[in-house]
Design goal:
about 210 residues, Umud Fragment, subunit A, 7-stranded antiparallel β-sheet, elongated
């Protein structure tokens, strides 16, 4: 093998190693993202850039109430009245294994994610009524909402959703801050820990809004 060929192969190996390390960092540690929807307005605005912390997924740690998280889009978004089971309010997902799991979850090819705020934690009783959210019978203080925003049952094309239930173990209940324009856990149920991808660490763009997101 010539010296030139060896040099080319060394560069190829270095590039491959760098790509693998970058993918591992992106999956297990953190990654940037762009806000694409208006469901978290006014907290997050379309085209803002965020840095996502994925260490919680690596350590299998549940987020806290008030955290803004990203999670995989459920396989089923809307339910008919006969399909709603508030005794088991967990979002439905496809069971991916092997190479399909690698492509979808690790490389994130063809994958869609939602960004929402954690409202309730495992074991807590959630009620949505009178335009407010109640946790274990106490009205939840939500200073991040715009004035005049009320929280109603998510009204999909079938007119049903989850509005009175207990959050299952290892799950969270999350909603967008822009309640009237957010498809969230009211529609499809609580998010299992293994489907939570990250928490929002900081806003990195625009520069005049750099910093922690409340």
């Amino acid at each position: 093998m010539s010296e030139k060929t060896k040099e080319i192969l060394e560069w190829v190996y270095c590039i491959i190693i760098a790509l693998v390390l970058a993918m591992l960092f992106r999956y297990f540690i953190g990654t940037p993202t762009i806000v694409k929807q208006k469901s978290m307005y006014p907290t997050l605005i379309q085209d803002e850039r965020l840095w996502l912390n994925r260490w919680g997924r690596t350590t299998k740690t549940l987020p806290e109430r008030g955290d803004i998280i990203t999670f995989e889009e459920p396989a089923k978004i809307e339910y008919t009245e006969s399909e709603i089971d508030e005794s088991n309010p967990v979002a439905q997902y496809n069971n991916r294994t092997g190479f399909d799991w690698f492509i979808h979850n690790f490389l994130e090819i063809g994958k869609r994610s939602y960004i929402k705020r954690v409202i309730a934690l495992p074991g807590e009783h959630v009620e949505i009524k009178d335009g407010n959210v109640y946790i274990d019978g106490e009205e939840l203080d939500e200073p991040y909402l715009q004035d005049g925003i009320v929280t109603d049952l998510y009204v999909n094309t079938n007119g049903v959703g989850f509005d009175d239930f207990v959050v299952p173990e290892n799950c969270v209940f999350a909603m967008g801050d822009n309640r009237n324009h957010s498809t969230d856990c009211r529609a499809f149920g609580c998010i299992p820990l293994e489907k939570i991808e990250s928490t929002v660490a900081i806003r990195i763009w625009p520069l005049n809004k750099w910093g922690h997101v409340d």
